Amino acid sequence: MMELRRLRLLHELSRLGTIAAVAESLSYSPSSISVQLAQLEREADAKLLRRVGRNVELTVAGLRLAAHAADAIAADEAIRTELATDAGDPPHGHVRITIVQTPALALLPGLLDRLAATAPELHVEVMQRETAPALDDLRSRAVDLVVGIEYEPLPVPRQRDTDRQDVMREDVLLALHPDHPAVPKRGDVRIAACAQAAWASGHRGTGLDAVLRNVCNRLGGFEPDVRHRSDDGLVLSALVASGRAVALLPALLTAEMPHIIARRLREERLQRTIFTATRTTISNAPAVLAVRAALLDTARRVAVRQRNLEVLA
User: Fold this and answer.
1) Please, is 278 exposed, middle or buried when counting C-beta atoms within 10 Å of its C-beta (0-12, 13-18, 19+)?
2) Lower CB count within 10 Å: N or C terminus of the chain?
3) How would residue 84 be classed by pLDDT, with cut points 50, 70 and 90?
4) CA-CA distance, 72 to 70, in Å (whole number)?
């Protein structure tokens, strides 16, 4: 009989490509994964891997078993979810959540307070993680629920095995020092007025960096001079407050930053969506439902107090 735990390792190897990547994704040592895969070969009585240089690749039999492994893992998870739902017990056990920094700052305290009241037997683990790697973690089953962000007009790819629910839409604003010459006396700001400014943005490859370049080139006709980079929204706001940079920042963050000016773009209303994503096999699990309900309740409470926010559910 083949163990589901070992089948999962084979499935992850087929998805990620190297034992090192599987080890990093699942927090195992490469040597322990190799030992477990060797045991799986004995259980399957088939050659599943072949050495290619310093790496390995799946044989035809390995690829076939990896495909069946994906089905077996999903079926096991779906059955566990169904049994937990049928039992009718209050949410309990563990749920692992990833969340992007700015939604975490605004929503996490209320979310955890709400869960403490509505699901006191649920043990919640939270990790800050950017959206793209968090979705990879979700598919590898390292986490159970992702709170991610999607900037317009750059969509996050959808996956058939992922259940997504949009929670909130917020404006992405142009943030400037109050004395910056581009700040109008009233109304929105033209992004073209910042063509010569120094910019602060996320690291290359992040959603914020991509949307900044898209918007500056498409709406302002210029390539931004990005001199400062951080994936920490508080650091970006501090750079703006110093008067040494301008930045695109979400409304959830700028609402708590009275020392900077944040205005909509005159050329186009720029927004981003905060969403949750989980695997379809656990979308009806009591723990996941409890977290999503608590997050939505928290979002509604925050939206009442702040402008430039819209709750979507």
Assistant:
1) buried
2) N
3) confident
4) 5
Token pair 């400037």: residue: 176
Alpha-carbon gap, residue 270 to 233, rounded angstroms: 17
- pLDDT the model gives residue 87: 65
Backbone phi and psi for residue 54, each to the nearest 5 degrees, phi listed first: -95, 0
Average pLDDT, the chain: 90
